[in-house]
Amino acid sequence: MHLPEWLEPLPDAAQQRALDTWAIEDRGIPGERLMERAGRGLARVLAGLAPEGRVAVVCGKGNNGGDGLVAARRLREAGREVDVLLLGDPSELHGDAATNLERLPGAAPAAFSADGLDGASAVLDAILGTGFSGEPREPAASAIAAINAAGAAGAVVVACDVPSGVDVSTGEVAGEAVRAAVTATFHAAKPGLWIHPGKAHAGAVSVIEIGIPEGAGEEATIGLIGDGVLGTIPRRAADSTKFKAGSVLVCGGSPGLSGAPTMAAMSAARAGAGYVTVAVPASVFAVVGAKLLEVMQVELPESDGALAPQAVDQVLERSERVQCLVLGPGLGRSAAALEFAREVARRAEVPLVLDADGLNAHAERLGELRARRAPTVLTPHAGELGRLLGIGSDEVGAARLRRAREAAAASGAILLLKGDDTIVAEPEGRVGISRGGSSALATAGTGDVLSGVIAAYLAKGMEPFAAACAAVQVHAAAGRRAAAEIGPEGVIAGDVIERLPAVLERREG
Residue 259 — φ and ψ, nearest 5°? Predict the structure, then answer.
């Protein structure tokens, strides 16, 4: 399973161990040399963040602690005041870590105590490394709490490779975990540094090159989405027509929820779809029609305030003329609306973006989507994914990667779990993660915008995983652009739609 070039590989703990072993055993690079380079990089990061004052280095008994000992030696050699605090007896250190304990100049390490952090300008967390998972035990748990208290009191906290307490492969946090200002990680970033809740503990991520050659070990299956994905979006040729540019049908809307299908339709058009149609119930047809001048409208029949059975056939007939269907924005949660969504999703034979109430219609029924023959992209937030899986949103939030992969496998669809760390998961296991950094998107309607962008790219014939990742990247960039111009607190979904063309213009430039 290869990652495309526009995904920056994020090796998990097992893959990073394999890389380290390959470098040491197959390429003959001493482990001691890798540790020296790691510690040297750590010292450089610490010195840059805290150029003055005492540094406290808290070391566990594994290789993570060995990296910390190298950093302490380098800082002392540069004239810095450094206290080294060990969790455990020095005799418990082995291999390269023990070697670097012997090389430490100046005062011998002391046993860890919280008092040892008082007054430090910086604290280096070198307790638990990439091999950790689960809940920290004592004495690590108390040391982690003390480091967090020092950080709250003003010390700069730097994590060595991964904040202690964070599962570096998944971002899951089961107990106490260090909250770092910066995580200095080695060779490559890891998934757990970019996926919440681990991302919230990692702070800024700084990758330190330690000399592991390229082309080794098991390939990563998870990657950070990069701007290179924008180059995969098809461009309109000189002989393009509105139909060749891609046709999208958006189906949704209900009284009080006419804005959702409107925004999905407008974002599809702004993202480059050549022909967009919106199908809405008769009760909101006039409202939607007044908002959309460049989009075709279809009035769906209603009976006693609910979509009539013949609405299904009308939408399916229209879907035969398009390359992608968006189903669910603003549809409502009446029994008739949810049954309508399930029937359309089951029978539609075009690529489908299922959002909002289209997702709610499939709560605890993900397996029904496996029967679809055309590609499907699901776009839940944590609450919607919880309903799809029959669990609470807090359970999704605690294990975002695991739950996204679970839903992708159960549905046979591309699963796009929205958030600052938006996760795009394939049923086969490949995952793209957004760098995020666009708090302006935390406002109503931006999810509808994202659905429209995905639909535009699917309608252009993009492979579904790439289409979803490209839409995530464009959507986030448009949000950042809007925030820069307006201020993040004042951005609304329409501002994001207006800036989609500018992001695409950058791609073409």
Answer: -70, -35
